[in-house]
Amino acid sequence: MGRARPGHRGGARPAAAPAGSGVHPELMVLAVSCGSIAFSHVNDPGFWMFKEYFNLSVIDAIKARTTYTTTLAVLGLGGVLAVEWVLDTLSV
């Protein structure tokens, strides 16, 4: 077994904004969540449910679902940016 490096606790470390950076961690979570729904493709079980429910071909389902999930992601990101602007204006 190797020796631990001084000051290294091991394990995964969460990505976080440095203290005093002015970044709200809650808004970071919301922004990442908005980005995660864009471009929903065939590896998503919801894609197959959508395809079967509306009786679409795979290509048509990709076109329709990608369009609305990407629109939803962009609108969500716009909402996150608006909330950030409000919080910055209020100096919260």
From TrEMBL:
<protein>
    <submittedName>
        <fullName>High-affinity gluconate transporter</fullName>
    </submittedName>
</protein>
<feature type="compositionally biased region" description="Low complexity">
    <location>
        <begin position="12"/>
        <end position="21"/>
    </location>
</feature>
<comment type="similarity">
    <text>Belongs to the GntP permease family.</text>
</comment>
<keyword id="KW-0472">Membrane</keyword>
<keyword id="KW-0812">Transmembrane</keyword>
<dbReference type="Pfam" id="PF02447">
    <property type="entry name" value="GntP_permease"/>
</dbReference>
<keyword id="KW-1003">Cell membrane</keyword>
<feature type="compositionally biased region" description="Basic residues">
    <location>
        <begin position="1"/>
        <end position="11"/>
    </location>
</feature>
<dbReference type="GO" id="GO:0005886">
    <property type="term" value="C:plasma membrane"/>
</dbReference>
<feature type="region of interest" description="Disordered">
    <location>
        <begin position="1"/>
        <end position="21"/>
    </location>
</feature>
<dbReference type="GO" id="GO:0015128">
    <property type="term" value="F:gluconate transmembrane transporter activity"/>
</dbReference>
<dbReference type="InterPro" id="IPR003474">
    <property type="entry name" value="Glcn_transporter"/>
</dbReference>
<keyword id="KW-0813">Transport</keyword>
<keyword id="KW-1133">Transmembrane helix</keyword>
